Amino acid sequence: MIKIALRVLLFLLSFVPAIVSAGSCASTTNPKLHRDAVCADTASIAPGNRSERIELSQNGAGAVATKVTAKIRERASIKDFGAAGDGVTNDFDAFRLAAASLTDDSTVAFPPGEYLISYSGGYKPEKIHGEIAFPIFNVKNVKIVGEGATIKIAGHNITTNGGLTVFGYDGTQGLEISGFRFDLNYTGRNDSDAYYPFNGAIVGRDTSGTAGSRTGRQLSSGININRNTFNIYHPLGAYSTALKPYRRDPNNGFKIFSFTAFGDTLATARANQNADVQFNSNRFLATHNAYGVWIWAYNNALVSQNVADSWANHSTDARGKIRGGYIPFIRYHQFYTSGVIVSNNRMNARPIKDRVGGYTGTAGFAHLTTNNTDDLNHGETSCVSNQLSLRTGDSGILVGVYGVANIADNIIKGVDIADRPVAAIDLQPNVNGKAYYTIQGNRTNRLFSAPLVRVNSGAPAKGKRRLKILTIKNNTSLNSFGSAISFVNMGAAATFGVEKMYVSNNVFDGEASEFSHANTNDSAIYAEGSTEGTDRYYIQDNKIRYFYNLEKSGRAVAKVTGNIGDHVSHSSNYNYFQTVHHVRQSKTVAAGTVPRVGTSNKGLFRYTARRVVLSSAAIKQTLSGEVAGGSSIAGATPAGEAWYIDQVLIAKKGF
């Protein structure tokens, strides 16, 4: 350290005409001074303590002298602790030494290089969640800066060595981890009930104090994870169940995280809760298959401008068999906390043909939910201006939070769809009737073959899975496969689950949809189930075009079943064709099926149908007429024959 200090001193002296006594620093006026003045009491510097006695003082009024040693320590390098960064040497011990040196206001830089960490010490009973290479404990205002550095774990065996995580923080206020590439690879799984191996890049959790009443330096807050790249892989996916559950939780085979912030889920008072976490401008590569960002019980969370290049993921059962599972790119669990913003992120679902082996599974964008059932009405959640592409079986934005939820201006595209995704926006409220949800300004493209909004609500008890107000407005759905907005109850004695609902000024236009228009899309707005006597629904001023439950006059009506229709008022929605509109479409109906043309009301379509022999194209039968809502135009098709149907839409503008 003395050699380093002397080198710094010699460098600084190259800009200074002479070393002056400490007492003369304030009066130095030499215009040739560069930026700093180095001051020392030359008469009292002993050979053994020069680095501690030499002072650095910035130019300008009010500058305070700083010991050279302290100045150097303001920004340490991981290489100061013996890290090689050559991709071959195990730098685990250097990580531990650097972590042990941390104090408040520390910075540790990782110069460019590949830092390999390996741990083979076996499972330790006192570390039920596994080893952390770089533990950050009970410090404030710490920066861990990756200057383009790669951190590498190569084939860490969970079975023999338990979990291994790169960075873990605990009781830390003010932490930045930025600029890294995480290239982490794992094998094996756990089957012991004694531990729950965590693995991955960054995990935060608080262990000091009593859960629910932690304060001050016991609580982590002000966490910033920015500008990192994640490439984490396990052939069995993001997590696995085990034959021997840990504390009744069978998902202790392993869990692999990119970034997870575990807040205090028992704290109800704001003073005892974790707060302020940001995950911004990070990237997940196509070869990544671990969890994305997962935040538990933090007030004021921001997840913004992150990108997933090719997202799909899965879990495995206790014997290592792939079982699917919903593992979203972004997950937020609310508990008693409030304030999350998910904005300007982009997710591309992995192509179906590439979902094999370790990349098997489905893609989900955001899961925003709460994990408690208390009588709560606070909390705000916003999911705005994100862009996502989904494929067959994938899910968009799943919302089940309490308080206020605003899902707005998201663009949800269907890509290479062979069948339908689950939904663009899936509402599954787990609340007691006090929450307000607003769904506005969202858009799906013509290849998106699923509902724009699906509400999965209702339960045997009135007080469960209900919303106070649901507003769905100014959204656009351009596909014609299924209902654009659908409501489905759960439970045999379910109530509809919404006290007041407003569906207005939406556009449902399936004219140029990529899908056949002669299918099950019998209504743009579909609701089934039962309601409470005081529930009221307003469905009005929506523009509905092409094949969505239109009356002969052209007016569109919502389809409702159960007693819901008794609670709908102002149901004035319109088919907005400007003139008589003709669309001719041929449809082949396979042998053995009963052909149908459309599911709308009589008079909306006219058709001509010809039954032919497939082997010779000989015409066996010809029919024509108007379509009655969803009825057959002929009997069952004999084997070896098929119907060829031309249909003409004759609806007029409905205003």
Structure description:
This protein is mainly β. It is built from 5 helices and 54 strands. Strands 5-7-10-13-16-20-23-28-31-34-37-40-43-46-50-47 form a 16-stranded mixed sheet. Helices cover 5% and strands 40% of the residues. Strand 2 (55-58) and strand 3 (66-67) form a beta hairpin. Residues 1-43, 578-586, 597-602 and 651-655 have low confidence and may be disordered.
Write the layout of secondary structure elements.
Elements: H1 2-13, E1 36-39, H2 50-53, E2 55-58, E3 66-67, H3 68-73, E4 76-77, E5 86-90, H4 92-100, E6 107-110, E7 114-116, E8 131-137, E9 140-146, E10 150-157, H5 158-161, E11 164-170, E12 173-178, E13 181-187, E14 198-204, E15 221-226, E16 229-233, E17 239-240, E18 254-262, E19 274-280, E20 283-284, E21 293-296, E22 298-304, E23 307-311, E24 315-316, E25 322-324, E26 330-333, E27 340-343, E28 346-349, E29 364-369, E30 380-384, E31 387-390, E32 395-400, E33 404-408, E34 411-414, E35 423-427, E36 436-440, E37 443-444, E38 453-457, E39 467-473, E40 476-477, E41 485-489, E42 498-504, E43 507-509, E44 525-527, E45 536-540, E46 543-545, E47 555-556, E48 559-560, E49 568-569, E50 573-575, E51 584-589, E52 605-613, E53 619-626, E54 641-649
Parallel strand pairs: 4-6, 5-7, 6-9, 7-10, 8-11, 9-12, 10-13, 11-14, 12-15, 13-16, 14-18, 15-19, 16-20, 17-24, 18-21, 19-22, 20-23, 21-26, 22-27, 23-28, 26-29, 27-30, 28-31, 29-32, 30-33, 31-34, 32-35, 33-36, 34-37, 35-38, 36-39, 37-40, 38-41, 39-42, 40-43, 41-44, 42-45, 43-46, 44-48, 45-49, ...
Antiparallel strand pairs: 1-2, 2-3, 17-18, 24-25, 47-50, 51-54, 52-53, 52-54
